[in-house]
Amino acid sequence: MKTDDAATRTDDSAATRPDASAVTLTDVSRVYGRGQGAVAALREVSLAIPRGSFTAVMGPSGSGKSTFLHCAAGLDTPTAGSVRLGGTELTGMNETRLTELRRDRVGFVFQAFNLIPSLTVLENITLPLRLAGTRPDRAWLDAVLHRVGLQGRTGHRPAQLSGGQQQRVAVARALATRPEVVFGDEPTGALDTMTARDVLTLLREIVDEMRQTVVMVTHDPVAASYADTVLFLADGRIVDSTERPTADKVAERMTRLGAWK
Ligand code: ADP
Ligand code: MG
């Protein structure tokens, strides 16, 4: 049925069409607690993240970055509004379906690597596939191992690797299921400057060469400068965004947000 409803027309625009966007948030709010003590961590955030793009999320401490990432990734449920992954509406999904969705369609890279020490590199990387009960796509796994530069180390344990190498394993693990989006919460936060650049270059490559979508929270303007778009959060709202960011431009915007007072 055709409809002239204005809201539907808006929804059909290129930016918010499900096939064009990896993640779509519409009027997403997240309130923690109730009554006097309630904290609005996100306030009516609307945004469409294009497929195959690299987005950085910045903002002062407490501005809602982690809450944004968790709501966008189906790790947290908004108080109001809608989140879509591709064409799939997350709102109203039960925990079982959300768990499956996170396992099969989303990848995560955390600050603290979160590798399992007793498993080898290859076992860590393929763990999400084994949990999902799917057989690894050998060609894809080889491409991932090649891309992250770990072909010679698949039998090592995490403790035998440097921090940067461990985060490369975590990136490979995030890619194993060929997810629609890879989310990172400060993925370079625990790495020294040189190693961090290495991992950021890798994230850039998986966007440019594997057409992955990456969404990364960071407090580092240099890290943000690897992204296509930087979103600036303040007090639970997206207050600005920058395309083709430079570290200087991002640092200057953060200073005006009072992030480093
Ligand atoms: P950021 O990642 O930018 O530092 P967060 O998303 O962690 O910000 O937090 C945004 C706001 O929500 C902050 O005021 C924080 O104190 C609050 N908040 C976050 N998580 C919780 C929670 N589980 N319970 C209560 N308040 C929370
Ligand atoms: Mg945070």
Which SSEs are present, and which pair or pack?
Blueprint: H1 6-11, E1 21-32, E2 39-50, E3 54-58, H2 65-72, E4 80-85, E5 88-89, H3 95-105, E6 106-110, H4 121-132, H5 138-148, H6 163-175, E7 181-185, H7 193-210, E8 214-217, H8 221-224, E9 229-234, E10 237-243, H9 247-256
Parallel strand pairs: 3-8, 3-9, 6-7, 7-8
Antiparallel strand pairs: 1-2, 1-4, 4-5, 9-10
Helix pairs in contact: 4-6, 5-6, 6-7
The structure holds adenosine-5'-diphosphate (ADP) and magnesium ion (MG).
Question: Which properties best describe this structure?
Answer:
261 residues; alpha/beta; Rossmann fold; 9 helices; binds adenosine-5'-diphosphate; binds magnesium ion
Structure description:
The chain has a six-stranded mixed beta sheet, sandwiched between helices. Strands 2-1-4-5 form a four-stranded antiparallel beta sheet, covered by helices on one side. With 261 residues, it is of the alpha/beta class. The chain has helices at residues 6-11, 65-72, 95-105, 121-132, 138-148, 163-175, 193-210, 221-224, 247-256; strands at residues 21-32, 39-50, 54-58, 80-85, 88-89, 106-110, 181-185, 214-217, 229-234, 237-243. It is built from nine helices and ten strands. The model is unreliable at 1-16 (pLDDT under 50). Helix 6 packs parallel to helix 7. The chain has one domain: 3-Layer(aba) Sandwich (Rossmann fold). The structure holds adenosine-5'-diphosphate and magnesium ion. The site of adenosine-5'-diphosphate has 12 residues, from strand 2 and helix 2.
